[in-house]
Design a protein that fits this description.
The chain has about 180 residues and is α/β, with parallel strands linked by helices. The chain has helices spanning about 1-20, 55-70, 90-95, 155-175; strands spanning about 25-30, 40-45, 45-50, 75-80, 100-110, 115-125, 135-145. A hairpin with an 8-residue loop joins strand 6 (about 115-125) and strand 7.
C-alpha cells in the first residue's frame, strides 16, 4: 500500500514538473536566409566537458542522422561530419563554409534509493561564409526524472540523449526550412 502511494506521488510530481520544462533558447545575431541553397553544411565534432562518452557520442551521431534524414525539408544538399577538431581546420577554408559546432556540458546524475534525476546542457552554433561570429546559437537544457521501478539508468540515459539530439536537430531544421 505504501509503495503505491509513493509511486502515485512521484507520478503526480513528474506531471507537474513537465509543465515547467525548460525549452531551447535561440539567440540570433544576424539574419539567416532559409531560401538560400547550400550544397553542404559541415558539422564539427561537439566539445564534451565532463560528460561521459557513452552519453555525448550517441547524441552527436543521432543529431547528424536526424539532420540528414530531414534535409529534404531544407535547401541543404547534405550535412557532412568533419573528422578534424575545429582548431585543426584551415581558417581560410573554414571562413568560406556554412558549419555547425557545439558543446555538451553539465551532465549530472543524482540517484537516490528509488529514483534518479538526470540533467545536461548543450549549445550549438551555426556559422555562415564570410562571418567571424555565429549567425545564431541555440541553448538546450534537458532534464529527466524517473522511478527505478519504471526504468534503468542506461535506458533513461539513452532516452535523455535522444531528446537532446532531437531538440538540437529540430532547432537547426526550423531555421533552415524555407
Amino acid at each position: 500500500m505504501k509503495s503505491g502511494w509513493y509511486s502515485s506521488l512521484v507520478i503526480t510530481a513528474v506531471l507537474l514538473l513537465q509543465g515547467c520544462v525548460v525549452k531551447p533558447v535561440m539567440t540570433e545575431y544576424t539574419a539567416l536566409d532559409p531560401q538560400l541553397e547550400r550544397e553542404s553544411v559541415y558539422i564539427m565534432p561537439f566539445d564534451a566537458t565532463l560528460v561521459p562518452p557513452d552519453f555525448s557520442e550517441p547524441i552527436f551521431n543521432q543529431f547528424v542522422d536526424i539532420l540528414n534524414s530531414r534535409r529534404k525539408q531544407t535547401k541543404v544538399g547534405r550535412f557532412v561530419i568533419m573528422k578534424e577538431e575545429l582548431k585543426e581546420i584551415e581558417p581560410v577554408w573554414l571562413i568560406k563554409q556554412v558549419y555547425i559546432s557545439g558543446d555538451i556540458w553539465g551532465y549530472v546524475e543524482k540517484s537516490g534509493c528509488c529514483s534518479t534525476e538526470m540533467k545536461a546542457k548543450s549549445r550549438i552554433y551555426l556559422y555562415e561564409p564570410g562571418k567571424k561570429s555565429q549567425t545564431f546559437d541555440v541553448f538546450v537544457p534537458v532534464e529527466h526524472y524517473f522511478d527505478h521501478d519504471r526504468g534503468s539508468i542506461t535506458t533513461e540515459k539513452e532516452r535523455l540523449g535522444k531528446k537532446l539530439a532531437q531538440d538540437l536537430a529540430d532547432s537547426i531544421i526550423r531555421k533552415l526550412t524555407p
